[in-house]
Amino acid sequence: MPAVIIDVRSPHLYTVEFDDGSKRILHANHLRKFYIRAQCVTYDTSLMMSAADRKSCIIRNKQDSDFGEIVTFEGRSENQTKQKLPSQLINRETLAHLSVKQQNELLELLDKYADCFSDLPGLTNRAEHRIQLMPGFKPKRLREYKMPERLRPEVERQLDQMLANGIV
Predict the structure, then answer these.
(1) Secondary structure letter of residue 74 according to DSSP
(2) What pLDDT is recorded for position 41?
(3) Is the pLDDT of residue 26 over 50?
(4) pTM beyond 0.90
(5) Residue 89 confidence (pLDDT)
(6) What is the DSSP track for 50-113?
């Protein structure tokens, strides 16, 4: 509960006045800095793209934690602004097994890291996977098998897409 320190009695004792007007003497161990947390922030994205916003800046120390996590806004191109956020693409019925709070937390997380989610497959170079084979291992020789003709167009489409995306 927020309160105001009105008197320092000693290096470790403080007189504190609460919102209801009552006063108490408290030891420093019972005090902590009060942070006001925003529950919801709304904004108009068209205002963020004005010339004034693109030219404004902020300077802060990397060790400064008074403001919590500060996420920088990277200007979006015309194509990116038309894309829907991941939370808008999810059918809420698929999240019915979660509580409302958990659903909101998940959707906020998905929107916060929207650039990590895409319908297009991608390729990462952040991790490398190796399978260690036992000494003397020889792979089994298998005969090739024919692909059914009805699957050929889909397989070729997927291969072309992977080639275009640089996956293969």
Answers:
(1) P
(2) 59
(3) yes
(4) no
(5) 84
(6) SHHHHH------TT--TT---PPPPP--HHHHHSPPHHHHS-GGGGTTS-HHHHHHHHHHHHHT
